[in-house]
Amino acid sequence: xxxxxxxxxxxxxxxxxxxxxxxxxxxxxxxxxxxxxxxxxxxxxxxxxxxxxxxxxxxxxxxxxxxxxxxxxxxxxxxxxxxxxxxxxxxxxxxxxxxxxxxxxxxxxxxxxxxxxxxxxxxxxxxxxxxxxxxxxxxxxxxxxxxxxxxxxxxxxxxxxxxxxxxxxxxxxxxxxxxxxxxxxxxxxxxxxxxxxxxxxxxxxxxxxxxxxxxxxxxxxxxxxxxxxxxxxxxxxxxxxxxxxx
Length: 246
Prior knowledge:
alpha/beta; about 15% strand; globular
């Protein structure tokens, strides 16, 4: 069994999640990489991570399913021996004005983003309590702080994650488990690449730094919160948004 620390990252095969996995692997973490559905390139991602001299286990699970999350945690422990860091990154959007939003679109976003965060955390936290140490980083969003028209479901889910983070931080601090959230703003990923140049320009005018962030910039903050350098930080929400929300 490896002596490396282990990070479990949900929704870790693309975008921000993938970059977090790569960044932590560069810092010596073995990686348990969660994904929900089969997709091209999974073996390539695994190989890219393992090229950093660590182990990588791909674990399929739907975070909105409690039983699958229980199996995922057990699987990670069996294959990698421990879980030191949990990054709750899995999430979806189904945007729309509330007058047109379907009930199932609201519920599915809550189920994956918020209830999924509970499901995974609930099944990982016993292992962290037993080892009396751990780091949990939850992916919120600036819209969970400030709201955004057309995203009542997403904003509600991300605001819920902030409350979840602060409450959990108080519950488990005595066990040396630190729980924090990050709130990215506009990040240059596959989701934003489809936007027109004019829309991107309009977005950039709202950001004091006049540009979108990168997935690597988000991953660097997760790396910090996963390290001993953050040993006196818990229950916090760190905005990564170029100054958009102050």
